[in-house]
Design a protein that fits this description.
Helices cover 35% and strands 27% of the residues. By secondary structure, the chain is α+β, with helices and mostly antiparallel strands. The chain has one domain: Aminopeptidase, CATH 3.40.630.30. The strands form two sheets. It has a five-stranded mixed beta sheet with strand order 1-2-3-6-7. The relative contact order is 0.16.
Length: 161
């Protein structure tokens, strides 16, 4: 079924759509309340526009072949870090990618399109020779990410007060 979708790279003109997906994603996870939705969407739009323009965010969008409406999106936020050991015999240059904004509109769900976008991102990250590709999984997305080879890591974060 996923072969009925067209995939393209995002441009700065897509910041509005990506911000909508981002806000909807966090809303679906219960992390953005209705009273914060519009402010979060607008702030995300502005930051995404800048990140797309600077090449710090690379996004992929999918729409049905016979329709221009974007129903699935995903992106990579590129981050430079300090060089670090990759293994005992190799060093990483410090080019990391964080997969973000994986969202599918209800009419596009369970059709394999998000998986297709994620496979595209994995291929792209290998071609770009990123040292690390990470994501933060929602409960709903965890099975897909594990199927694609993502594993739980030892990352920790400071708890919110």
């Amino acid at each position: 079924m996923s072969d009925l979708f067209r995939i393209r790279l995002a441009t700065t003109a897509d910041a509005e759509t990506i911000a909508w997906h981002r806000a909807r994603m966090f809303q679906d996870m219960g992390e953005v309340t209705p009273n914060l939705f519009e402010t979060f969407r607008a702030k995300s739009r502005d930051r995404l526009h800048d990140a797309l323009a600077r090449g710090e965010y690379v996004g992929w969008l999918a729409s049905p072949e016979n329709d221009s409406n974007i129903v699935v999106g995903a992106g990579v936020h590129l981050q430079r870090t300090l060089p670090h050991p990759l293994s005992r015999s190799a060093l990483a240059e410090g080019r990391h990618g964080v997969i973000v904004n994986v969202f599918t509109e209800p009419e596009g769900r369970r059709r394999g399109v998000a998986e297709m976008l994620l496979r595209r991102i994995i291929e792209w990250s290998r071609a770009e020779r990123l040292d690390r590709l990470v994501l933060h999984a929602s409960e709903e997305g965890r099975a897909l990410y594990e199927r694609l080879g993502f594993v739980t890591s030892n990352e920790m974060r400071l708890a919110d007060d």
